[in-house]
């Protein structure tokens, strides 16, 4: 195969930053994400602060979780925040009707979540209950968290151990309001949104709220169009989009997380690549109403959704995570980076033990998934200056269908170092890249790689490091050119040291 000619362009005149919030995560009261995930049983022999697992915190701190979305998902529109504050023994037991009818003891509530965020160094991103809550309930939650006035609600917060306001700024107003959040029409939701947003108050001394509209289901332009048309720009900081990757594309039989063949690998990565066109479509609609790009698009649920692991509760959405997931993650993050003028937030679903998880636990044991390692590699892009990358991708062909084998994104950080993230989706063929970087002077290249013998390889509790990062030796400086041999089925991030 001919070498791929790749150019990393200088930053465009209208400089664009890759928001660190693209590197956000999601923790729903679902299956074993919170309970038996972040929040350990008191008797579990792991390092803990209260009941927060510190081995998980330590791992996540390393990849710089920009924000953490909570308490859902579908659960958010059934959640009543008062159930989760005050003395634990007095908190009611409720039923998680969305996820396996699990009994929710509410031991993990608002204060515990905000303590977790503080330990992680992550910004909290709360989802308010629009589906089964009230405007007053949401407004009270905001006052409880953000006001410094002397009121019964703030006194309650102080009694519950937090004297100072928390200043939580990121607020989703509902979740999937077209579905589990209330099955609303877009026109009805936009009226409801405006009502809620009107009472989402900024409190003196707390930073202004970022009010976020519950956005479209995948490829549904009508929802975005109606939101942008009906909601004044000043009333929304962001608008969301949910787009999952199903291996088969069929919700009834999504395909297994491991043990799949090349045909299912191919359809998974093909489906994941749809994210680019879907984001572009929603961004174009937003441009019509908001040409100055004031409103952020937040893809606040994305990731691979497979069948659950055999023998596990179908309502708990527990799935393994293979090199295939890592290739999807690297590709999707490249897509988000390259749309960073509009995509200014994203949340992988979900952080621990649910869907495309970063971390899996089994009692005291914990492992880092291949997807975790991609977030480790890509953290260099957080809040860095975006650099456009141009190339003609070779094709990866299977059964007469073709998709681009290569995807990439690049950025320059505050020290001047340039980072290029490259994904080769072809599981059978390495690629050679000849890269020019006009206007960028650099003296050395280093890198790290994630790959494995098979795209279905994964980390198990017996072999937790089967798929792990390694130093990458396949990039060389030839004069001003960077020559890279990118192995089959790999994610590589290169760092170019400035002169
Ligand atoms: O992430 C799992 C679920 O997927 C969320 O609760 C919901 O918002 C989406 O449908």
TrEMBL record:
GO terms for biological process: L-arabinose metabolic process; polysaccharide catabolic process. The keyword Nucleotide-binding does not apply. Its EC number is 3.2.1.55. Residues 300-490 form the Alpha-L-arabinofuranosidase C-terminal domain. It catalyses: Hydrolysis of terminal non-reducing alpha-L-arabinofuranoside residues in alpha-L-arabinosides. GO terms for molecular function: alpha-L-arabinofuranosidase activity. It comes from the Bacteria. SUPFAM superfamilies: (Trans)glycosidases (SSF51445), Glycosyl hydrolase domain (SSF51011). It is an enzyme of class 3 (hydrolase). Keywords: Carbohydrate metabolism, Glycosidase, Hydrolase, Signal. SMART domains: Alpha-L-AF_C. Transmembrane segments: none annotated. Belongs to the glycosyl hydrolase 51 family. Homohexamer; trimer of dimers. This is non-reducing end alpha-L-arabinofuranosidase.
């Amino acid at each position: 195969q001919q070498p791929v000619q790749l150019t990393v362009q200088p930053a465009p005149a209208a400089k664009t930053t890759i928001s660190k919030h693209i590197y956000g995560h999601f923790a729903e009261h679902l299956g074993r994400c919170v309970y038996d995930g972040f929040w350990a049983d008191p008797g579990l022999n792991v390092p803990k602060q209260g009941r927060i697992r510190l081995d998980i915190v330590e791992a996540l701190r390393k990849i710089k979780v920009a924000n953490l979305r909570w308490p859902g998902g579908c659960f958010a529109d059934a959640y009543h925040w008062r159930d989760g504050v005050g003395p634990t023994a007095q908190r009611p037991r409720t039923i998680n009707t969305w996820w396996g009818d699990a009994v929710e003891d509410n031991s993990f509530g608002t204060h515990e979540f905000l303590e977790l965020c503080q330990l992680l160094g992550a910004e909290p991103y709360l989802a308010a209950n629009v589906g089964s809550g009230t405007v007053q309930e949401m407004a009270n939650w905001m006052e409880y968290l953000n006001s410094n006035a002397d009121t019964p609600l703030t006194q309650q917060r102080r009694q519950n151990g937090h004297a100072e306001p928390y200043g939580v700024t990121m607020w989703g107003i509902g979740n999937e309001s077209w579905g589990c959040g209330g099955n609303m029409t877009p026109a009805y939701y936009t009226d409801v949104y405006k009502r809620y947003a009107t009472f989402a108050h900024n409190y003196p001394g707390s930073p202004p709220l970022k009010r976020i509209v519950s956005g479209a289901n995948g490829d549904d332009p009508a929802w975005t169009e109606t939101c942008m048309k009906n909601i004044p720009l000043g009333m929304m900081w962001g608008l969301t989009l949910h787009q999952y990757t199903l291996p088969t594309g069929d919700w009834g039989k999504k395909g297994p997380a491991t043990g799949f063949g090349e045909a299912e690998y191919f359809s998974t990565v093909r489906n994941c690549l749809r994210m680019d066109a879907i984001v572009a479509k929603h961004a174009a609609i937003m441009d019509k109403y908001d040409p100055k790009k004031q409103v952020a698009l937040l893809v606040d649920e994305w990731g691979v959704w497979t069948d659950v692991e055999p023998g596990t509760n179908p309502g708990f959405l527990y799935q393994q995570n293979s090199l295939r997931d890592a290739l999807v993650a690297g590709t999707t993050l490249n897509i988000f980076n390259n749309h960073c003028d509009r995509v200014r937030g994203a949340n992988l679903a979900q952080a621990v033990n649910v869907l495309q998880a970063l971390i899996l636990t089994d009692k005291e044991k914990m492992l880092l998934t291949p997807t975790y390692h991609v977030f480790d590699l890509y953290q260099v892009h957080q809040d860095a200056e975006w650099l456009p990358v141009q190339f003609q991708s070779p094709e990866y062909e299977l059964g007469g269908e073709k998709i681009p084998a290569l995807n990439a994104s690049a950025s320059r950080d505050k020290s001047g170092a340039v980072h290029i993230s490259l994904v080769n989706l072809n599981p059978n063929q390495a690629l050679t890249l000849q890269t020019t970087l006009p206007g960028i002077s650099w003296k050395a290249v280093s890198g790290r790689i994630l790959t494995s013998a098979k795209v279905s390889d994964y980390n198990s509790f017996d072999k937790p490091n089967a798929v792990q990062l390694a130093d990458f030796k396949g990039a060389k400086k030839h004069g001003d050119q960077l020559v890279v041999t990118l192995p089959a089925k790999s994610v590589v991030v290169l760092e170019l040291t400035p002169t």
